[in-house]
Amino acid sequence: MARKIVITSGKGGVGKTTVCANLGVKLANMGFRVVMLDADIGLNNLDVVMGIESKIVFDISDVVSAKCRFKQALIQDDRYPTLYIMPSAQIDCKNSISGPQFKNVVDMLSPSFDYILIDCPAGIECGFHRAVFCANEALIIVTPHISSVRDADKVLSILSSYNLHSKALIVNRVRGDMLLSGEIISVEKIISLLRIPIMGVIPEDDAISTLSSLGAFAYGTSGAKAFSILSENIHNGSKKIYDCTYKYRGIVGLIRRNIKKRV
Ligand SMILES: Nc1ncnc2c1ncn2[C@@H]1O[C@H](COP(=O)(O)OP(=O)(O)OP(=O)(O)O)[C@@H](O)[C@H]1O
Ligand SMILES: [Mg+2]
Asked: Residue 15 Cα, ligand 2 centroid: separation in angstroms?
């Protein structure tokens, strides 16, 4: 049976889809059978990030309405044979798929995969509840900004009414230079405010934002390294955290910080 992990947040645009896509790639790279489920019905973008938009014939709404079998809607990634995507409905039918119907699809997928990653829509409306209802575990994405932390706190209180085995934080878009100069909230402070364990820290990485829209992933970059550590933490239960300040320390780091400040 698969581990069913919902990737959620309070605030929109903090990196749920980015984390889902990159985590899916890393877990598939480790040899696991992974399916990514886009729960953002009507506002799908996981397919765009993964570069599979043009391959979609059937989507989750066709599975729910029995127009196709669930295997027909799954799209296999070209680069990673054990990575699949279940596309979200292309049309706006967000209120026509119920939580139990969505859960039914997740349960159908479960015996064939090791991981089901559910990309949650923004907000706390019915799409959020539908996505969380299907999961056993939740990863809450937060950026080091007070508005994001506040919204994550609200989401955590809603999540406490669900029967989740575990909840953990991912701090995304962390700028090492700003962390050192105290311009953004530290990861330790975020943990102390939200009082849940940390699963990973992902740096702000230009390569992520420029390449993700092309369905490509940046190898050897700081973002890619952080996602490798994150996927190992998720699978092995290890507690390594990527150090975003690393390249901004020492004399060379100081020069980098000054350059970054000017641009
Ligand atoms: N670590 C990062 N470094 C740089 N850019 C990032 C990073 N994480 C996400 N982004 C960029 O931020 C933007 C929003 O990311 P994404 O779409 O993953 O957020 P989301 O939480 O899924 O949004 P929504 O709530 O609308 O679904 C994208 O352009 C993405 O490329
Ligand atoms: Mg998204």
From this structure: 7
- Per residue in 58-100, pLDDT (tens digit) is 999 899 989 999 999 999 999 899 999 999 876 666 567 888 9
H helical segments located in the chain? 16-29, 46-49, 60-64, 70-73, 99-109, 126-133, 146-159, 176-180, 187-194, 206-212, 222-236, 250-262
Q: Is 200 in the pocket of ligand 1 (CB under 6 A)?
A: no
- Centre of ligand 2 to C-alpha 13, Å, is 7
Question: What are the angstrom distances between the C-alpha of 3 and each of 79, 114, 118, 147?
Answer: 23, 6, 11, 30
Give all domains of the chain, ordered by start, each with its CATH number. 3-262 (3.40.50.300)
* Ligand lying closest to the C-alpha of residue 122: 1
Q: Please give the model's pTM, rounded to 2 decimal places.
A: 0.93
Q: How confident is the model at residue 150 (pLDDT cuts 50, 70, 90)?
A: very high
* pLDDT tens digits, one per residue of 223-250: 889 999 999 999 999 999 999 988 777 7
Angle (nearest 5°) at CA 105 between 121 and 3: 75
| Distance (Å) from CA 242 to ligand 2 centroid | 23
- Give CA–CA dist 205/210, Å, rounded: 9
> Quick one: how far is CA 222 from the chain centroid?
17
What residue owns the CA closest to ligand 1's atom 23? Answer: 13
Q: Whose CA is nearest to atom 26 of ligand 1?
A: 13
> What distance in angstroms lies between residue 12's CA and the mean position of ligand 1's atoms?
9
